[in-house]
Specification:
Radius of gyration: 21 Å
Shape: elongated
Helix content: 40-55%
Protein name: ferroxidase
GO molecular function: 2 iron, 2 sulfur cluster binding; ferric iron binding; ferrous iron binding; ferroxidase activity; iron chaperone activity
Structural class: alpha+beta
Order of helices and strands: HEEEEEEH
Largest sheet: 6 strands, antiparallel
Pfam family, one: Frataxin_Cyay
Strand order of the largest sheet: 1-2-3-4-5-6
CATH superfamily of one domain: Frataxin/CyaY
EC number: 1.16.3.1
Number of strands: 6
Low-confidence stretches: 1-5, 9-21
Number of helices: 2
Catalytic activity: 4 Fe(2+) + O2 + 4 H(+) = 4 Fe(3+) + 2 H2O
């Protein structure tokens, strides 16, 4: 008797079917990630531009291109914030706190160690860098 589990055609059809369903779920999760990450990146770009309008730090520059936001404070170094679609994360490289990875949980970008919110961390660090300037990171 030929076992249905050993039949290569049954296994192959089964894996095709499961890939079809998981691809749809993955596409939706990917679409949702890009939606919320793009909103966050645009908001950060706007917030950093607002800081630039209030300060006169030489070398201050903000650039957003291809999912990578580069923010040269002109004083304390450069922040690099980028989307990581395969991991569904936002990665931060900070001249103050170093590298961190953030997951989108319950409407917030929380670092992978569950200790910091992206917006709160940035606001705290930037207030330290830009003393005397009203620094607000939109939540």
């Amino acid at each position: 008797m030929f076992s249905i589990l050993r039949n290569p055609l049954v296994r192959q059809a089964s894996s095709i079917r499961s890939r079809f369903y998981s691809a749809a779920a993955t596409d939706e999760a990917s679409r949702r990630f890009h939606e919320v990450a793009d909103i966050r990146m645009q908001t950060l770009l706007d917030d950093f531009d607002a800081i630039g309008e209030k300060c006169d730090a030489p070398g201050f520059d903000v650039v957003y291109s291809s999912g990578v936001l580069t923010f040269n404070t002109g004083i304390a170094g450069t922040y690099v914030i980028n989307k990581q679609p395969p991991n569904k994360q936002i990665w931060l490289s900070s001249p103050i706190s170093g590298p961190k990875r953030f997951d989108h949980l319950n409407g917030n970008w929380i670092d992978s160690k569950k200790t910091d919110k992206l917006e709160e961390l940035l606001e705290t660090e930037l207030k330290t860098i830009f003393k005397g300037i009203d620094v607000t990171i939109t939540k």
